[in-house]
Specification:
By secondary structure, this protein is an alpha+beta fold. It contains 7 helices and 16 strands.
Length: 311
Amino acid sequence: MVLRRSLSALLLAGLALTAEGEILGGSFPGIDFGDTEKSVRAALKSACTKLSTVAVEPPSLPIAETSESHLVCLGYQSQGVELGEVAFTFADDGLALIEARRGAIESLLPKAGEHNASLGGYDAYLSTWTVAHADEDAVWALTEAAARSYLFLWRNPDLPSNPEPRSSHRPSIAAPKILEFGADLETMTERLSAACQGISTEEIAEPWLPSKPRRQTQINCFGHRFAGYPRKIEAVFGDGRLELAWILTGKGEEDRIRQALIAAHGPAEIVSQNYEAFAGGRIALRKDKPEVLLLSEPLVPLYQATFAGDD
């Protein structure tokens, strides 16, 4: 499956979130992003036939630093909206993500605003930060942080429709085996197409790789698992050969990824304001933007000044 347009360009276009108290046109009265679990539970009390809480300790959600919990509502009915199941996800006790299923397409999409693009099986509605998957009868309402972490690619295991148990999320930070530095663009396109939920390809008009290629191409892989969650991977090619890869992560998990990298490779060899470099400079934790950088061997010496904060 090849996505016709970049998910990044669509979801991170900088459009405003829905107005306060108007998530999906008021489909969830009295509930807004950022609300506490206690507040949302009170608003849902009469709307669900069954309401339960799942606390995840320690937190694993990419956008959760100190706490993670989920309110699972079965049989939601309010303001003409009827849903079989809804998960309200909280990161650091602020509502950050809603995943609705069974009746979601019929009840919620009419309130999602303008349809911006179809992305494989996904549809994006930017004015309300909403993503839908018609075949799954699923709708996600996201905060900007949740969108930047591509959490609509994740299926909340606390919902009955999602069969994958939470215990299966083992947070490996090993470099994805699908990435073979030096491999050609055709080979990697086939490999990423098979391993990712979807891909998009873009030509970079002004190459910025320090190896100074004449042509720079990027394949965006959506949905490959890293550190326990499906991610976006940006595989960057210089003159048709894979040179580096960015793995987009969440700010809330920065220290968890740091500790995992230390456990795997020992203490960081370079630490600056924006980077911590490991494994002889082949792997770096980026801190100004939540990402992990993987480098080919020829690029390692060319990134030392960047890691040290000298350029």
